[in-house]
Design a protein that fits this description.
Elements lengths: L2 H14 L5 H10 L8 H11 L5 H13 L4 E3 L7 E3 L9 E5 L5 E4 L2 H13 L10 E4 L2 H6 L3 H10 L1
Parallel strand pairs: 3-5
Antiparallel strand pairs: 1-2, 3-4
Helix pairs in contact: 2-3, 2-4, 3-4
Length: about 160
Amino acid sequence: MDPRIKERLEAHLATSGLRRTKQRDVIVEAAFATDDHFNADELLEKTRKLDRTISRATIYRTLQLLVECGLLRVVDLGRDQTFYDPNFLDKPQHNHLICLDCDRVVEFEDENAALLHDCITRRLGFQPQMKSMRIEAKCDGLARTGFCQYKAEREAKMA
């Protein structure tokens, strides 16, 4: 895990008068073990593999703490759930492309998109603080060949 994560969390805990706990450490380890987006239930499942005593309430409190200190961001992936993105430390201006066919999420950065965000906000009299873009699209592979590897994998997991 990136040492900046622990440093930022330690600083936030200290300024908030909170203490470091074994359960928080396990949750942080699970949350940042991958670059994948996750929801609270998925994080609970991961953490319970490491420590069966972690409760749903502890997950939600720790997620809020990680959002407050800027280590996680809440992202709208259009699935009627709250998802968390652990990738903003290294890529603070990334965007998301979401496949409507297979639910695959692709992160991307683009200087032209960043420039467009800046131009729009400044023209309308705002100072951009945080920028993000979500594009929902259809899978080219599925349209062209009738097969999408990601959709097949998702359906296999659900079966």
